[in-house]
Amino acid sequence: MKLDPDKLVLREYDEAIASAEKIIAAGGIYAQKEVAADQKRIDEVAKRVRENYANAAKTQIADARRKASETYERAVAEAMKKRAATLSDSNATYRRSVAQSNLTLRLKRNAGKLGIVIWNLPAKAKLHDRSTVAVKIELLQQDRVVWTNKLARLNRRADNSLFRLPNVLFDKVRIETTRWTGSGSGLAEVEVYVGTENLALGRPCEVSSIETLPTHLDDRDALTDGMAQPTVEGEGYWIPEEKTRATVTIDLLGEPNQEIIDAAQARAAEAQAAKIRAAIPTR
User: What would the pLDDT profile of 38-80 be if each residue is shown by its tens digit?
Assistant: First the structure.
C-alpha cells in the first residue's frame, strides 16, 4: 500500500485474472504465452509505480532538506539580528555613559558660566504671525527635574533672551511655551552654553506638538540647527499647532548630527569672513 497507494499493480493482476477466467470460460486456452503477456504488462506498471515512488521520495527528501535549510537560515538570521541589537544597545549604553561623564566634567569645570539662549521667532510677517512671550525652562538629570524657571519672559525688543543656569548637573533641557501673541507660539533656536560651547548644536530634539502644514513637518530639527535668524518660510524655526502650549526637549547626550554642526560652522566662518571684508578699507 505504501509503494502503490492507488493499487495500480493490484488492478493489473485483477484484470489479468478476469481476462484468464473469461478465456477459460469461453473454452479457450490460457497458457504460457498469455501468462507471459499479462506478466509483462504487470511488470511495466510495477516499474512505473516504483519509479514514481522513488521520484516522490526524492522530492520529499529535497523538500525536507529545503525546509530544514530555510529553518536553519531563519534561525541564524534571527540570532544575528538579536546579536546586532544587543551589540547596538551595548554600544549605545557605553557611548551614553561616556557622554554623561564628559558632560558632568564640563558642567563642573564651567560652574558659574552656564546659560541658555532662547531665540524667538524671526520678526517677519511673511514667515508667520506669531511671537512667544514667556516659557517655562526645566533642567533634567536622568529624566528627573532638578531645576525650574516657571516664568521666563522673552525679551520682546531683541531676537534672543539669555537666562543664567544654576550650578547643577543636567543632561536634558525642556522648554514649554506658556504665553504668546498672534496665532500661537514657536521658537527659532535654543542654545545651551557651557562656557563658550553650545552643547545643544546638532543634538536631537523632541517636540510635543508641530504645525501640520507640509512646510513645517520637520520643524523639530530646526531648534538645534544653528540657524538662529531664519529667513526662509518653513526653514530654521519651529511652530506648534495654533494656540497650543507645547514643549521641546533637547537631549544633550544624544548623538549629534555632524552635518548640522558642519553647516553651522561653515555659516559662522562665512559671516566672519564677511566682517573682515567689510572692515578692509577701500580707495
Answer: 888 888 888 888 888 788 778 888 888 888 888 878 888 888 8
d(CA 260, CA 222): 10
Instruction: Give which of 50, 172, 183, 186 is closest to 116, Cα–Cα.
Output: 172
Q: Which of 47, 36, 38, 1 is nearest to 18 (CA)?
A: 38
DSSP β-ladder status, 189-194 and 144-153: unpaired
Q: Three-class SS of residue 283? A: coil
- 215-224 pLDDT, tens per residue? 666 667 789 9
Angstrom distance (rounded) from CA 193 to CA 235:
23
Question: With a threshold of 0.90, does the pTM exceed it?
Answer: no
CA distance 114 to 106: 10
Q: In whole angstroms, how far apart are CA 144 and each of 3, 31, 103, 172?
A: 74, 104, 16, 9
pLDDT, position 216: 64
Contact 198, 213 (CB under 8 A): no
C-alpha cell at 143: 529624566
Per 3-state DSSP, the chain is made up of helix, strand and coil in percentages (nearest 5) of 45, 20, 35
Q: Are 28 and 19 in contact, with CB atoms under 8 Å apart?
A: no
The beta-carbon contacts of 214-223 under 8 Å, at least 24 apart in sequence, are 220/248, 221/257, 221/260, 222/188, 222/189, 223/187, 223/188, 223/189, 223/190, 223/248, 223/250
How far is the C-alpha of 191 from the C-alpha of 226, rounded, in Å?
Answer: 8
> From CA 223, how far away is CA 202, in angstroms rounded?
9
Strands 189-194, 172-182: pairing is: unpaired
CA distance 36 to 148: 106
